[in-house]
């Protein structure tokens, strides 16, 4: 099924789901300059209040590149990045997929207006067509894109911080994740579940402190299978890029595992015994 959403080469304001506010859509449409390796760093727009590409950004793009063959066979029609920041990730996804016929539609959201503008500039510099929506997570897109999105990519605010830092203005919002770095992640997951199509895939960055096994259990109860695409350790953190996809019987399997799980197991041993690697989806 094709979902045609008309894009215009202008910035417009439309009503938001939050009373008294408006969401600004910034659309870029330029001739194609597509490559298959991701966005070029020197073309990425920068602003002091926007998170620049870093280890976690590179890990997510590497995961997409590692899964590129599957993504091409997947033939997504609509892709979305939640929390787009500089636009490096959504632009990388678009460039590695290529789309000379302009059949794939790309959306990106951010609560930071400077990030929305940076993403517009980054996508323009690469000749990529992206509609950038200024909104919290993707709440204002829920009804319009419900069950329509084939690929979602998220590098969420995952750093454990005091709860009062969550949702602050400016660049702090890009990393402040609250207790266990989960405050924003736990809000993102149900939104993604609403947006993903029946064949939809989610790629998300997590930190060890985020309790990724618990996240996978939560998604498993919603009917998602999962696997680690990239695992990377730096001096400061251990990152996992996890891919989720719908699987009809997955909720029952996870509920069964939860019933037999012993409290003495370490999360890492649970992580390695799970079925995340059992299918090269």
From TrEMBL:
GO terms for cellular component: eRF1 methyltransferase complex; nucleus. GO terms for biological process: methylation. Belongs to the eukaryotic/archaeal PrmC-related family. Its main location: nucleus. Transmembrane segments: none annotated. SUPFAM superfamilies: S-adenosyl-L-methionine-dependent methyltransferases (SSF53335). Signal peptide: none annotated. Keywords: Methyltransferase, Nucleus, S-adenosyl-L-methionine, Transferase. This is Methyltransferase small domain-containing protein. It is found in: Nucleus. It comes from Acorus calamus (Sweet flag).
